[in-house]
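#help-structures

NK: newbie question. if I give both the sequence and a SMILES, will the prediction place the ligand too? trying with zinc ion
OV: yes, paste both and it writes out the complex. here, I ran yours:
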Amino acid sequence: MQRSRSLARRQRVTPKKRNVVHYERRAPSMPHCAICRAELNGISIRNAKGRTRKSNARAFGGVLCARCTGDVIKLASRIENGEMKLNEIGMRHREYVLQLMAH
Ligand SMILES: [Zn+2]
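OV: that's the protein plus ligand as structure tokens.
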């Protein structure tokens, strides 16, 4: 357990002035956009009880940021109208464009 890096190490000084290492849980990280890796807005990680994760009800809410969601919707409609082809889209967007067109 102490060799694992899943717990954060903290140097602490005891009341007897001994240096010891304490192992603590890391703080939960903010969710990030799956395309551009920006932190997602409008999402609260924990409420007063520290349990639920709130997200927004938009398409791809909690997965993509607002800007990338708009890009994906634009690309999907361009493909449906025949203005673009699927292989003209970057790999990261392609997965979500396909998801949108499946609906
Ligand atoms: Zn993004």
